[in-house]
Amino acid sequence: MSEAVLDDATLVRVEEVLRAACGLTLARSLRRSLETALTRSAASSGVEPDAFLRMLLLRESAAVETFIEHAVIGETYFFRHPEHLRALARFGMAHPGPFFHVWSAGCASGEEPYSIAMALLAAGMPEGRFRVLATDVSSRALQRAREGVYGPWSLRRIEPELEKRFMVARGEQLSVVPQVRRTVDFRRHNLAVEPPPASGLSAIFCRNVLIYFPPELVREVLARFVEALAPGGLLFVSPAEVPLTNGLGLEPVDAEGSVALRVPPPGWTRPQPPAPVAARVERPRPAPRLPSRVPPPSVPPPVTAAPAPPEPVRVEAAAEPLARAVEAARAGRFEEAEALAREAAKGLVPEAYLLLAMVAEGRGDLNGAVEAVRKALYLEPQLALGHATLVALYGRMDRREDAERARQNALRALDGLDDEHPLRGVETMTAGGLRQALAPRTQAGWQGAR
């Protein structure tokens, strides 16, 4: 079934709910993702989309929190951007101070802060010498993070030796070992409107969050990060977000082809925080049709106010097989995910074939994965994440010429797209992030060459 379709006036009202709940205004190019969030929220609540929309516009607290979770919490997994974690581990081991304090801002369901702790422990840093503060505005996300139990979908990129050392079986899922959990503190925090929860930090991770903020809020949040970091401290953002840090006086540090940003040592004068703005002004840009699949990154909490009842609103929606397929895959129910993805594929949805490719790759059927991606590209030849998926598949098959051809095709598909442009696919990624990922580099394990 197709996702909910909102007229412009209703979309504005829905966005007002999001702003009231967490002080966040999505960039113009991302507003249509709220339709996907509405469809997914209604499905998870067991009500029809038009009924859920009425509850949302009435600002019923349960509906608001459910909506926010689907609107702003995106795809995450263990050891995402492992080059950042390797750079952090090297920096931590050389850190002269007695204590190493890292903040994971917008931690969602916990994969990032646990990965940070695992990287530091694997590098040889004693458990008592560091601490990871992990914050998010979603209470539900934090509850899942504290439980520390994950399925194969979240662990699909962790290396076997790290999984063996830091995860233990818990039924059909895996649980983070106590040694790692003891090093991470989870706390609710609204990144958009609250001051940093700590100061003198050694490093801050805030990846794939800033691109969902309007420009003036980005500058405010970054200025607060700079103030919270100790001299010499590192800031890690996603590749697409690096240009947003221009003008803050941060020094770029190479992280194996990616970039970390460092607060210069003592003697440097911190830049003044941005002056208050009288009104919000957004850069005009076209509003592309976003994928109806995976919601964007993290932020958000409940609201209780109840304004006057809204006028009835009609919404077209029914169950969405692909959204349910993604949820099943994340939970490790791969047979169910495959069946739902095949159902979605009957509607000629390219993303359904990308999910089928991921399931096939997971069971070792690389040829089947390639065939599924080719079907996605037949439906949408400019599907950049489809071409990028072929790069990885051909690399595993040692088909180097095919992998390079796929890489060039992916780069051509990105031509003309703004770095902040969200790409169609099963996983959340921007055009800038994929460009960075496609940059030639030596492939290695997370620990890389020493």
What does this structure look like?
By secondary structure, the protein is α/β, with parallel strands linked by helices. Among the domains are: 82-262, 3-Layer(aba) Sandwich (Rossmann fold), CATH 3.40.50; 321-438, Serine Threonine Protein Phosphatase 5, Tetratricopeptide repeat (Alpha Horseshoe). The protein has helices spanning 8-22, 33-45, 49-57, 61-72, 82-94, 111-122, 139-147, 160-166, 178-181, 215-228, 321-330, 334-345, 350-362, 366-379, 384-396, 400-414, 431-438; strands spanning 100-105, 130-136, 149-150, 167-170, 173-176, 184-188, 201-205, 229-236, 251-255, 258-262. Strands 6-2-1-7-8-10-9 form a 7-stranded mixed beta sheet. The chain has a 3-stranded antiparallel beta sheet with strand order 3-5-4.
